[in-house]
Automatic annotation (TrEMBL):
Swiss-Prot/TrEMBL keywords: Nucleus, Transcription, Transcription regulation
Organism expressing this protein natively: Rousettus aegyptiacus
Protein name, UniProt field: Enhancer of polycomb homolog
InterPro entries: Enhancer_polycomb, Enhancer_polycomb-like_N
Family: Belongs to the enhancer of polycomb family.
Main location: nucleus
GO cellular component: NuA4 histone acetyltransferase complex; nucleus
Lineage: superkingdom: Eukaryota
């Protein structure tokens, strides 16, 4: 299918255009033989959609009357909302978290360790506190650093033997 158009492409300022005066105009019969039809550009729709009457009316109105796009309307079915169904599916039990992203503070003195002591750790700390004074926060920092260091690097037999040969007090001082 082809649509009628007066110009297939935009004007070029570098090319001269012919100018006709009223007496020089060719007869209407001569103009009819001039084929100005331009192949129709794809609309971006499927073939079945192009045959729908309301779309054809909108496309032809745009071509014939050169209407503005705001005045052309393609009917769209209205969406319905079922509030009861929504409330039944999504209960309002959401609690806003205190923070979305956890950022470690720049001051390392105030940094809290990721490790938390449990009851077994408390008994071990009580036994160690008979020989030396270790605060619970210091113990958590020490175990946290030990866990992070052992997960990031493999402990070789030489390192393990050094850790086991040294007394525990020097081991504690190593992490503090």
């Amino acid at each position: 299918m082809s649509k009628l158009s007066f110009r297939a492409r935009a004007l070029d300022a570098a090319k001269p255009l012919p100018i006709y005066r009223g007496k020089d105009m060719p007869d209407l019969n001569d103009c009819v033989s001039i084929n100005r039809a331009v192949p129709q550009m794809p609309t971006g729709m499927e073939k079945e959609e192009e045959s729908e009457h309301h779309l054809q009316r909108a496309i032809s109105a745009q071509q014939v009357f050169r209407e503005k796009k705001e005045s052309m309307v393609i009917p769209v079915p209205e969406a319905e909302s079922n509030v009861n169904y929504y409330n039944r599916l999504y209960k309002g039990e959401f609690k806003q978290p205190k923070q979305f992203i956890h950022i470690q503070p720049f001051n390392l003195d105030n940094e809290q360790p990721d490790y938390d002591m449990d009851s077994e750790d408390e008994t071990l700390l009580n036994r160690l506190n008979r020989k030396m004074e270790i605060k619970p926060l210091q113990f958590e920092i020490m175990i946290d650093r030990l866990e992070k260091a052992s997960s990031n690097q493999v402990l070789y037999i030489v390192k393990i033997s050094r850790l086991t040969v040294n007394p525990f007090s020097s081991f504690v001082l190593y992490f503090l």
